[in-house]
Amino acid sequence: MPNVLLTQRCVRACPYCFASKHMTEGAPDAVLSWEDFIYVADFLQNSGERRFPMLGGEPTLHPQFVEFVAYALDRGFRVHVFTSGVVSERTLEAIASEFRDEPFDRFHFICNLNDPEQTPTSASELRNVHRFLARMGERVIPGFNIYRTDFTLDFLFEAINRFGLQRTLRLGLAHPIPGASTACIRIHDIEHVIERMFSFRPLFERMRVKPGLDCGFPMCRFTEQQLGWLMRHGAGISEFGCSPVLDIGPDLTVWPCFPLSSFHRKSLLEFNSQKELLAYYRRIHDVVRTEIGGLYPECDSCWYREDGRCAGGCIAHSVGRFQSEARLRLPEVYL
Questions:
Q1: CA distance 273 to 86
Q2: pLDDT tens-digit readout, 32-82
Q3: Closest Cα partner for 172 from 195, 198, 137, 197?
Q4: What is the CA 126 to chain-centroid distance, rounded?
Q5: Would you kindly state where each structural domain of the chain is located, as residue ranges?
Q6: Cα gap 14→292, rounded to integer Å
Q7: According to the model, what pLDDT value does residue 22 have?
Q8: pLDDT by residue (tens digit) across 155-192?
Q9: CA triplet 182, 333, 275: central angle to 5 degrees?
Q10: CA nearest neighbour of 310 among 176, 186, 216, 219
Q11: In degrees to the nearest 10, what's the CA dihedral of 158, 160, 164, 168?
């Protein structure tokens, strides 16, 4: 399910930003043209893909955002928009008017929320986010990227109740970006993060909110009790993967995921289908896993990994480590 970047412009400067290296190296004002948008839609449709995730930067900054969404919906795609919630009043009104009758599964937002205390933001930006959440409410899945070990989730539960958001909370680890310096969770802190996350278990249960884990969590760092709770109360969690997500930039450049935005970049025009594109990046992933199986030495013999239920954590950690070593490994593992 490739993510399609409508624009590289953003309204925030998050310390953990996965896209920072890509946006620094690219043209900040780059936007996806109508011609290329239609090409991407054709590519996805011909590949049998029915989902159309849109992101940026901030995708709603694209001057044709509403028209792009309408076009994708008319072609039968299910549109998921990844947003900061900082949406202009004019665009918000257009969205509310144009798509008010669309079912949730056809059109919704994943809104990444920052803790207003730990990730300071201006009062005007916070008002913007609250205006968006108040208007879109039931059409929003809240998300949170964990980039420090002393995080809290209280503000997210408050937002879910206050604005009537979907009762699923998407939780992700901030991963390192090889070649860039951003805030992230280091390998030795992952267990502490998991313990901290489970300290909010009573709130999840009391408020009937389902946790959904984004990619990169290593399965072995959860206790059997924690895994059992996730299987019962989580949002369909069965595997702890790390596989190519696929991001398509405004200039049709492709890369495996944002933490690896400088890793084996290609052009979408070089591939005939999504299957062919995924096969290319899966082969690269397999090469990395051949060099280092996962985040920990025991990943090489872990039955979770042998059984295909865990990938061994985010490969961005390994790729970053390779760059500081003597170049003695397979050439595919280097930027």
A1: 34
A2: 999 999 999 999 999 999 999 999 999 999 999 999 999 999 999 999 999
A3: 197
A4: 22
A5: 3-270
A6: 30
A7: 55
A8: 999 999 999 999 999 999 999 998 888 899 999 999 99
A9: 95
A10: 219
A11: -160
Task: Give 320's contacts (C-beta < 8 A, 6+ positions apart).
Answer: 176, 177, 178, 179
Q: 3-class DSSP state for residue 109? A: strand
pLDDT at 17: 84
Is there a contact between 251 and 30 (Cβ–Cβ < 8 Å)?
yes
Phi and psi dihedrals of 138, rounded to 5? Answer: -65, -10
Say which DSSP state 260 is in. G
- Listed in sequence order, the residues at least 6 apart from 276 whose beta carbon sits closer than 8 Å to its beta carbon are none
Per the structure block, which two tokens stand in for 35? Answer: 């011609």
At the second CATH level, the architecture of 3-270 is Alpha-Beta Barrel (3.20)
The pLDDT, as a whole number, for residue 329 is 92
What residue type is assigned to position 325 of the chain?
Answer: E
The tokens for 137 are 């409410």
Tokens read off for 134: 């108040």
b/e per residue 204-227 (b: at least 16 CB within 10 A): beeeebbbbbbbbbbbbbbeeeeb
Distances (CA, A) of 24 to 17, 112, 130, 144, 154: 11, 21, 29, 23, 33
With tokens 């996806």, the residue in question is 32
Tell whether omega for the bond before 137 is within 30 degrees of 0, i.e. cis: no
Summarize pLDDT for 87-142 with one digit per residue, the tens: 999 999 999 999 999 999 999 999 999 999 999 888 999 999 999 999 999 999 99
To which residue do tokens 């995730």 refer?
Answer: 53
DSSP code for 334: -
**pLDDT tens digits, one per residue of 305-314:** 888 899 999 9
